[in-house]
């Protein structure tokens, strides 16, 4: 990834998945996201547990803002709530244009450390970053 960008930012949100969304629909979101994010230099992680999404996006501020506007209007989820938005000097989640962690697949030792599970509605900005750190660790080991 290009580290010479001037206006890097990090955005984290969570949302409620549409009731009829299937695992294949979620895979399709990722298939769509990877090449698009690659083109505009966005990196991040998407967590999904059949009820909620939580996503971290990092990249150029304009690109992240534009993508977030599109994501917030996407009918595949609703009640999109911003958890964190900050300017950053360096990316923390730069390994993937977008990675997906389906939480039923993630062992409890990773996901139970905060609030006994995945409860993004209770997460502070710091909790959300801790959670993504755990998922990144899990995904790296699972690769
Ligand atoms: C939970 C969720 C996460 C998404 N993440 C991304 C993403 O990281 N990158 C992306 O390009 N699209 C993502 N999308 C899809 C976008 O909402 C949108 O469909 C896509 O950017 C195409 O938008 P457009 O048709 O307005 O160009 C996501 C959708 C959902 C529901």
Describe the structure.
With 143 residues, this protein is α+β, with helices and mostly antiparallel strands. It has one domain: Alpha-Beta Plaits (2-Layer Sandwich), CATH 3.30.70.100. Helices cover 36% and strands 28% of the residues. It has a five-stranded mixed sheet with strand order 4-1-3-2-5, with helices on both faces. Bound molecules: flavin mononucleotide. Flavin mononucleotide binds next to helix 1, strand 3 and helix 2. The site of flavin mononucleotide has 15 residues, from helix 1, strand 3 and helix 2.
What characteristics describe this protein?
alpha+beta; 36% helix; Alpha-Beta Plaits; binds flavin mononucleotide; 143 residues; 5-stranded mixed sheet
Give the helices and strands, then pairings.
Layout: E1 8-17, H1 23-40, E2 43-48, E3 52-60, H2 61-72, E4 77-87, E5 99-102, H3 108-111, H4 125-142
Parallel strand pairs: 2-5
Antiparallel strand pairs: 1-3, 1-4, 2-3
Bound molecules: flavin mononucleotide.
Flavin mononucleotide binds at residues 29, 32-33, 36-37, 46, 53, 55, 67, 70-71, 74, 76-77, 98.
By CATH reckoning, the class would read Alpha Beta
User: What ions, cofactors and ligands are bound?
Assistant: flavin mononucleotide
Please state how the strands of the largest beta sheet are arranged side by side: 4-1-3-2-5
Low-pLDDT runs of 5+ residues are none
Distance between the termini: 20 Å
Mean pLDDT: 91
Alpha plus pi helix count: 4
Helix content: 25-40%
Strand content: 25-35%
Largest sheet: 5 strands, mixed
Quote the CATH topology. Answer: Alpha-Beta Plaits
Sequence of secondary-structure elements: EHEEHEEHH
Indicate the CATH architecture: 2-Layer Sandwich
């Amino acid at each position: 990834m290009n580290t010479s960008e001037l206006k890097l930012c990090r955005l984290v949100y969570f949302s409620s998945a549409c009731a009829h969304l299937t695992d294949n629909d979620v895979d399709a979101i990722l298939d769509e996201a990877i090449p698009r994010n690659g083109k505009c230099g966005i990196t991040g992680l998407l967590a999904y547990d059949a009820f909620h999404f939580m996503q971290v996006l990092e990249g150029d501020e304009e690109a992240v803002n534009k993508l977030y506007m599109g994501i917030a209007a996407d009918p595949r989820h609703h009640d999109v709530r911003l958890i964190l938005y900050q300017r950053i000097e360096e990316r923390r989640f730069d390994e993937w244009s977008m990675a997906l962690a389906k939480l039923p697949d993630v062992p409890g030792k990773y996901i139970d450390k905060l609030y006994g599970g995945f409860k993004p509605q209770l997460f502070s900005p710091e909790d959300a970053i801790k959670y993504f750190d755990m998922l990144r660790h899990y995904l790296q080991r699972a690769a």
